[in-house]
Each structure stands twice: as C-alpha cells, then as structure tokens.
Fold this sequence. Notes:
The protein is an all-alpha fold. It has one domain. It has six helices and no strands. The chain is globular, with a radius of gyration of 16 Å.
Amino acid sequence: MRQLKRWCILGIFFVLAAGTLSHFVYDWxxxxxxxxxxxxxxxxxxxxxxxxFFPMLLYSIPMAFQLKExxxxxxxxxxxxxxxxxxxxxLFFYGYTYILGKDMLLLDLADFALSVILAFFLVYKSALSxxxxxxxASLCLAVCILLLCFVVFTSYPPDLAIFHETG
Length: 167
C-alpha cells in the first residue's frame, strides 16, 4: 500500500510538471508535425486534454511494471485513472465557464491540477479495491481509442466547440 501511495504521489508531480512543459513543446519544436500528436497545437479544450493524457500514459508504463506483482489490477486502475482525469478536464472547464460565463487562466490551471489529482486518487482507490479488474480489457481499449482520437483529431478536428480555441 505504501509503494502504491508513493507511486501515485510522485505521479501527480510528474504529470503536473510534464503536462505543464508539454504545453510549450509544439512551439519549442517550431510546430513539429509529430510533436503535435502528443502536445497541444492550439488553445482548445480538446488539445489541453493532452496535457494530462500523454504524461500520465508515459508514467503509467513503469508504474504498471513495478506494481503488477503486488497490485494485479494496476493496469485497469491506471487506464481508469487516465480516462477519468482526461475527461474531467472538459467537465470542470465547461462547468466553471457555464457558472461564470467566461474562462479564467487561474481556473484553467486549477482544472488541470484538480484533474491530475483526481486521476491518481482514482488509480489509488481502484487499485486497492480491484473492482475494475473485470473491465481491464475495455478500459485499455478505451485508452487506445482516445489515443487514436488525439492523433486523428489533431489533423482533422471536427467542427465542435471542444475543438475550438477558447478565450
């Protein structure tokens, strides 16, 4: 349990730092086509979901390998955390902008941080209970589908509000 808690706490800091840095990678690489698949290419809510998704996916690989013996349901828990955290970004954003009638940078930052914390909290709780183990294949498939959506919709975004730049 202590090892799982340590991995989750370190994961929060890793994803917060990596996600924050990845916000700037696309411009730092002179708008490299391939960097755009993994980092935001504009200021849309959809693109900002990448700030959590890809760093957490990257962090999940060593975490899963390290904990798989003691926590056999770590993979399903990580997939659930990735999905929940990523999808909470637009939920929090549209929730607070609906209430306030506008978006605010400070609340956008809080949205990201809260989503990361929520993601790892759910990883921790679900890894302890193993209630999601029966859904491991479906959760992994959903993560793969979301990954594919990020790649496709970076180049071909649908004409929906989530893909439009905010601000």
